[in-house]
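USER:
I wish I could look at a protein chain and see how it folds. I am handing you a single protein, as its sequence and its fold in token form. As I understand it, each token names a local backbone shape. I hope you can help me see how the letters and the tokens relate. The protein I mean follows directly.
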Amino acid sequence: MDERQAQFMKFFPDMGDLVDMEPEEIGPFILRHIAKEGSMLNRFNFFQSVPNEVAHHMMEAWSWLEREGFIAVQPNDQFGLNFFITRKGQTVAAEEDFGAYLQATLFPTDLDPMLIRTVKPLFRRGDYDTAVFRAFKEVEVRVRTRAGLGNELIGRELMVRAFGPTGPLTSKAAPKGEQEAMRELFSGAISFCKNPSSHREVQFDNPREVIDVICFANQLLRIINRLQQRVSNE
């Protein structure tokens, strides 16, 4: 690594760390640097300063920026080497905005439509407590609707009634042990995941943990849909 490359790499993590980083982790460093150094918007000029030891890692990150729409090739550039920072890229160039974008991309795209509509906006805003509460509120509403039970039943009481021995969502063909397990699964989920947020503020520090909890709610919704169909066919 020559002196010019050494000076260039001062804007990036140590090379020993960089080789272990994912493209989406390196990308913000590249975006912020090329935003300050206009000449670096030429891909050839940029990689002239990149040491061979990390060139592939940096190229992966550059490609990720392009794929995500943060940078784009200049119009009428026949060689495809001159780039510009897109409006999207300018918006998230600040570190805090980039962090928010990366967190938002964690949200799965194949969840129950109701979760996509009502929970995803809360998650994108970082309102994790409310997002988890809303996900399990949907579980509660779905159970009440599919079971045909009244609004006076809430929380654990609703689950016990819906999945009880004579409950409308209980499969009579299932072994007794499975019936009890289903009742305890839904009762425990509502008690543990929804009720605490109903009574006090619950702090979630890890967005990936929040996604895990929301995906659990999504699985419960899938089970409800399957159970209703199974029970109606018995």
About this structure: The CA atoms of residues 71 and 85 lie 5 Å apart.
